[in-house]
Design goal:
The complex is a heterodimer of chains A (171) and B (155). With 171 residues, chain A is of the alpha+beta class. Chain A is built from five helices and six strands, in the order ααββαββββαα. In chain A, helix 1 runs antiparallel to helix 2 (35-41). The radius of gyration of chain A is 19 Å and the shape is globular. Chain B is α+β, with helices and mostly antiparallel strands and 155 residues long. A six-stranded mixed sheet of chain B has the order 2-1-6-5-4-3, sandwiched between helices. The chains are: A alpha+beta (171), B alpha+beta (155).
Amino acid sequence: MSGVADVSVPGSTGAVSDTRDCIATFYTAYRSRDLELLNAILDDRIEWFLAGPADHFDFYGARHGKDEVIEVITRIIPCYFHITDFEFDQVIVEGDCVAARGRIRARQRDTGRSIRYGFAHFLQFERGKLVALRGVGDTFDAAEQVVGHPIDISRAMECVSLMPEDDFSAV
Amino acid sequence: MDLSVTRTVVEALYRAYAAHDPVQIAAYLADDIELQMDGPVAIFPFCGHRRGKAAVLDLLTRLKPAVLPTRRMEPEKIVIEGDHAAVFARTTAVHKQSGRVVVFHCAHFFTFRDGLVAVMHCVADTFDAVEQVVGHRIDAYYEMVGGNSEDIVAI
């Protein structure tokens, strides 16, 4: 076995073959946002972490448990873009552990613009269920494609106070 | 399961990488190594593609340390299959120009050939790294008009 990119190809040994089946099911569920498939492949206690600017795009960050992960896949990510495909350049399988690298293809929700950016996922399966995912991507590239223009890094985000200053001083 | 590349090798490679030591790093690189570092080249000029041992050594031991020298790399997950290895890590670096400490997540994918790294691909949380380098939260949604406001006034 080698780090092949086609996750749908079964491996030569039972354990790896099972894992490759799990990988294929997970990414099909992720892309299609199919509730039945997601329910089948995600473990109830899944730990999920996507490294990225959660202040801007709230699908980044940590999620705990199946309900939170299903929410991020089916409701939060589609607020920004619809994933149309995962392109794999490298998939490494060691028992129940997987490292996958490639590009996410998506369509920006408001404009329909094509988005394509690099990602890496580290997955862990147990008894045919995904129990952990840690992901990282070229988030600056992704952010520029989502907002649709070059990002001016000198421009600081303004903090908006939820309470008028008068009220605040009166506390 | 046959693990052609061992964890010991991957961990030693990581230590050499973090040390920016050309002698240590050179011992792991194939002559025709291909390296791809995803990221904004305008901000991190060391990002992009390099080919060949000399170019990759120059990148890892001179170009990158001149901008963002690595202080520590903490592997959180290592996956190995045959001649392929991947590491999910937390990197601590220092932005040379400002002295700011920058901590971000990254992933490295290696393909080994005859015990040497033939292909290396780096993916990092670049938005987080850039925000820490500039020292403030970036307003991603702010759009520059024409790239220079003075030009607009002059019209």
